[in-house]
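User: For my dataset I need records formatted as: sequence, then structure tokens, nothing else. Please produce one.
Assistant:
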Amino acid sequence: MESAEREARPQARFEHLFKVVIMVHMKKTSLVHAKAHLSELVDAAEHRGQRVIILRHGKPAAAIVPVAVAERRTTKHRPMTAAEAEALLQEVEKSGRPSSMSISEALGRDRLD
């Protein structure tokens, strides 16, 4: 993504974080069920935009997603530069509310003492 485009779309910086959230909200099905109902799963992806994770032995093995989603994933994303990472951290720091809580308290490390 070009830096000018990235600045025009600030939420683009966080797109990689949404991948985890999307996987949690995807429908999950076993490989046996997917084999038996492949046509239905493809129809759901094509017409309703539904995303399905196929599990093999209870672990994610593949996904059925709409074509538009698959096409978006083919573009290569470059890693953030150190300057971009620093700018992002500063932006996050500025957007947070001031707190009197220490980092250890926020992480709950004090509860073990």
